[in-house]
Amino acid sequence: MKRPSSLLREAWLLSRDRAAIFWLALALALSVFSVASGVEEVRYQRGELAKLIELDEADRNAELARQSDWGGAAYYAFHLTYDPPSDLSFAALGQRESAAWKHRIRMLSLEGQIHEADAPNPELALAGRIDFSFVAAYLAPLLVIFLLYDLRSGERAAGRMELLTATAGRAESPWRMRAAMRIGALAGCVLLPLGIGGSVMGAPVAGLLLMSMAVVLHVLVWWALVALADRLSVASTTQLSILVGGWLLLAVLVPATGRILVERAIPVPSGAEILLAQREAVNAAWDLPKEQTMIPFIERHPEWAEHSQIDAGFDWKWYYAFQQVGDQSAEDISAAYTRGRLKRDEAARLSAWLSPPAFLERYLQSLAGTDVRSVIAYEQSVRDFHAELRSFYYARLFPGQDFRIAEAAGLPEYSPAR
Amino acid sequence: MSVLLTLAAGEWRFWLRSRLVLAGFIIMACVLAVTSLVTVTRIDAVQKQRLEHQVAAEERFLAQPDRHPHRMVHYGHYAYRAPGPLAIIDPGVDRVTGQSIFLEGHRQNSAMFAETRSGAVLGRFVELTPAVAYQVLAPLLLIILGHSLIIREREAGTLAPLLAQGVRPVAMLGGKALALASVILAMTVPLMLLAVRATLNGESAASAFNLVGAYTLYLLIWGGLILLVSTLARHRGIALGILAAFWVISTIIFPRLAASYASVTYPAAGKIETDLMMARDIREVGDGHDASAPTHDHLREQLLSDYGVARVEDLPVNFRGMVALASEEKLTRLLNQYADDQMLREQQQAALVHRFGWVSPFIALGNASRALAGSDLAGHHRFLREAEALRFSFVQGLNTAHAHDLSYADDANRNRDDAAMQQARVSAENWKVLSDFRFTPSPPEDRLKAATPFLMMLTVWAAGMLAVLGLAAGRLRP
């Protein structure tokens, strides 16, 4: 028996199997839909950013033109910060669905601003959207199961088992080839839209290849699981029940339990506490003697010590100093919030070894730069930018310089890391 | 009748002998026990904690010292959304929305810090709750139990003798249906216990009853579908394949497909874009901090002529406070307009998803369940509206104190030096304008009304299923 002809025969058999064609068509349709809506979403986000960058600049210039001192300029001039979607993010929208990837920041206390996020429609967030990572991680295994469970036990039930085994060269070969055919077709149906989407977005080839390899490996893992269940030699319906049960376990129950355990084991201060600490500090400062604000401020900024005497009832220097002291008083809890999220993410990364679907999804998100680490890296870039803003304004507020619109053109500009 | 019972009893005997079925039952029981326990503990803790935070926020506000009233406008306050008693069954959107809002003057903040934002990223299924166990897992168990109800008799060659002995096809299906229905009723016992607990915690019996009813109807629809496929399919494998496909498509794929479709169809503007648009409009309303801005000229003329004086210094009220009052009102109208647009957009998106209930009973039940438990989108919007009403009332209360209890001269000179700043303040007695806020679910009749379209969908599904089953019974051949 020559290989190519048996390959062709298997392909012909596959094309005659209506159930298999249904599952493959479903795989293709879902993959196309997920990639198309991912591409659409990334385009929308890019368009939105382009529009916002323009609106933001216009708004800032309009505000700056009305100002007469640096304090007012710092109060009214906002700055857009953003994390543009990567070229691969169409495949795994990840944390961009819930975490903030754009902010408008000004010189006020940063803790009061950095936690602002677009509130997504809760009704949609509850179900979550279909992106490519969902199709590859959660639906592809089910399709593997539906395509393969019936292969051997079906033939057994139909009474053709003995005949097929007897006519084949080796006992395993017809099944292997038939299964490989289906797995190959499934992988093709899932990956083809990814390749097309990737070339439309101009995504890096290396990233796309890594993604494809991960998806193929994941599908192979599920093939192995089906083969394992096949060893049980039980009726095909029992086998299907066991396999769907296995999917439920690995794709739903293990990750959900893992999340509960991780969140119990690693407490994270509630974000509202950060805001509360910051707000209490900022509001209390109005009623405190001015030195109580200026002393902790000067500890951080000794370079302004000689300009730190406040005589008037209100002085912008003092106002921004207590904004900064507000951040300082929320510093520990805010750092604990970031640390806690990173620790949870690390624990989730380790737990994901127990759930291939969760593992694949996290891997795709890390390739696409839509994981928790990317979110926190973006937050850090916002913090850095805010620090730049502060040094720009402090250098003008403390020596008491006059506001000049031309000089405001030298304001720091945010540039995204990627 | 006795034929029905005999057939049902036979089915039960078969299930009890089958290890697979037994394993399924045990797993389902464990999942129900664990999810109920976890959800009840979490919701109880959250309920207590949010109430404590709410009370603490009120006490902190009242404990603030004498101040300039406008300082209190920016000091602000918090509103917490406590879950209702039925949230122990279906917490709905609780985890994906922020649970508290910071309320202050001139701004409508969004509800911040949804729990999912700091959660561990593991898997797509937000939370395991009794609702999820019943909506997603229970149908799967029913499929395993029931896909072979009729086919088995056909494959074993017992269908023909039974029919030949004069068992009518309708009785045949009826007996099998009775067996499956008894399983469904047994499965809903934990749900009933949870509903009773919610009732003891102050939930209306009607809502709890409707909720249990909706879940039972949903499971019965699945039972009907399973029986139907088992009657029509030629092989067990085909029946199981069809049912599993329907399960995957209706519970896993459709809800997400609908969500993606809705967000692409009605893209919602982000907060920053809205803020920028609003900033443009606000420049027209005028800055309430700057009483000399030309946008307030009209108010000044009006007040001067009303009181018959020539200068704002001679007014019996503090002009700056009057400006704060008037501009907050104008601004709030604008803010509410944007907030209404946002909510409308979310409702449009949701309405699109809701239509998928006609093809997926899972979507119909999910919405009925959240509506009855008060944990749906509309419940969240009601929270946002009530929080806004609270914000407007205390801010205007403080602005009224600003206008009437603080003299214009003191107010205008407040920045001269520390002594002037001390002078420009009002008594902390004024902070009592803040009213208590306790968020509770809407009245049961409102929730029932919100759930009605979805209950209707489920009823249509059930009626259709019955009709098709009747037809199938008529054509039952060995």
What does this structure look like?
By secondary structure, chain A is mainly alpha-helical. Chain A has 2 domains: about 140 residues, no CATH class; about 240 residues, no CATH class. A two-stranded antiparallel sheet of chain A has the order 1-2. Chain B is mostly helical. Chain B has one domain. Chain B contains 19 helices and 3 strands. In chain B, strand 2 and strand 3 form a beta hairpin. In chain B, helix 10 runs antiparallel to helix 15 and helix 14 packs antiparallel against helix 16. The longest helix of chain B has about 45 residues. The radius of gyration of chain B is 30 Å and the shape is elongated. The model of chain B has no long low-confidence stretch (mean pLDDT about 90). Classes of the chains: A mainly alpha (about 425), B mainly alpha (about 475). Chains A and B meet through helix 2, strand 2, helix 5, helix 6 and helix 7 of A and helix 2, helix 3, helix 4, helix 5 and helix 11 of B.
**DSSP summary: helix tally of chain B:** 19
The domain count of chain A comes to 2
Share of β-strand residues of chain A: under 5%
Most extensive interface, chain pair and sizes: A-B, 101 and 93 residues
Please report the distance between the alpha carbons of the first and last residues of chain A. Answer: 55 Å
Q: Which stretches of chain A of 5+ consecutive residues score pLDDT under 50?
A: none
Beginning-to-end CA distance, first to last residue of chain B: 22 Å
Strand content of chain B: under 5%
Q: What's the SSE pattern of chain A?
A: HHHEEHHHHHHHHHHHHHH
Largest sheet of chain B: 3 strands, antiparallel
Across the major sheet of chain A, the strand order is 1-2
Summarize model confidence as the mean pLDDT of chain B.
Answer: 89
In total, how many domains does the architecture of chain B comprise? Answer: 1
Structural class of chain A: mainly alpha
The total beta strand count of chain B reads 3
Mean pLDDT figure of chain A: 88
